Amino acid sequence: MRSEQRARWVLMRAADTPEVRSTPGVSRTFLTRAEVGSQHLSTGTTRFEAGAGLFWHMHPHDESVTVLEGAPICEVGGVDGIVEAHPLQPLDTTFIPAYTPHRFINPTDQPAIIHWSYPTARIERCPVNPDGSPLEGLHCADSSPGERSSEQRQTHDG
Fold first, then answer.
1. pTM of the full predicted structure?
2. Where does 14-152 sit in CATH, by number?
């Protein structure tokens, strides 16, 4: 028998989970996360108002995104300087490997909602240029709710 303590299951109702706004026109809802006992998984949703989008970034962990509503675009960059733009529709799902520069934008006049998941309880987001080079003066930050600001974090050397 394993000596590890088994985590308690948790029901997270979206209606009871506050939205976090950090970018104009973009709000996130954190569902599965460390604060509810998860040690290896984070999930949630991001809502993009018409014309809104995220900045270029990457994570030191894989990410999967499924479109729930709307028609956002997933842009993926890389060291070759080529940016791929992929129009998405509901239930389209992306897999973005760790350290891949990307962003989601909503060019439409209707809201878009995505569901995301990461194989970590703490989500780290590193602002970058489309080629993956770091943005001067900005650092990786734990974007989980209630965490330290980017000024309190060290730049990721990965």
1. 0.84
2. 2.60.120.10
